[in-house]
Design brief:
This protein has two domains: 95 residues, no CATH class; 42 residues. Helix content is 53%, strand content 16%. It has six helices and three strands, in the order E-E-E-H-H-H-H-H-H. A hairpin with a 6-residue loop joins strand 2 and strand 3. Helix 4 packs across helix 6.
């Protein structure tokens, strides 16, 4: 299983402690035995940022302060040693300029997403074709459909359809 991380940034206090960042895992209720380490749930409560002083070099704190609307005069300090934050600030400034700039940004973003979607589709089609070629080769060697299904991920009806095309 691939690791799954859920990040929840809250504008209100939910968890009854004074930490702004809490991390949870799945554990058994009685023994506290960890079920698996592949699921992590983070809660970051913005109102708690001001409760305790934080190191200014803490990158997570810098990001959260920016998200929470830190004054623009603090942005340079927050962006220092925080990869990506300067880019986010520049993008926000750009988008805040005018409607035309936002529209251009949205068009570019849509074009990039469309391009990625087309690449993903082509890749999945290529994989499907490869699986069919492998299945055809396995059928020609007389291997059982159940093994072919296991190896290629194709369904038994798909394999039978390929087999009919061969004969």
């Amino acid at each position: 299983m691939k690791k799954v991380i859920s990040i929840n940034i809250l504008t209100f206090n939910q968890i009854p402690n004074d930490r702004f960042h809490n991390v949870y895992h799945l554990r058994e209720d009685h023994t506290s035995e960890l079920l698996l380490d592949d699921i992590e749930i983070h809660f970051m409560e913005l109102p708690k940022l001001s409760l305790k002083p934080h190191k200014m070099d803490d990158r997570l704190v810098n990001w959260l302060m920016f998200i929470d609307g830190a004054p623009k005069e603090r942005w340079e300090d927050l962006a220092m040693d925080t990869p990506g934050l300067k880019k986010a600030m520049t993008t926000l400034e750009f988008l805040s300029q005018n409607k035309e700039a936002r529209a251009l940004y949205e068009m570019r973003k849509k074009a990039l997403l469309d391009e990625q979607s087309a690449l993903d589709y082509a890749e999945s089609r290529g994989r499907a074709e490869r699986d069919k070629e492998i299945a055809t080769n396995m059928l020609q060697k007389g291997l059982p459909s159940s093994l072919i299904a296991e190896v290629t991920g194709l369904s038994e009806p798909e394999i039978e359809a390929l087999n009919k095309k061969l004969h």
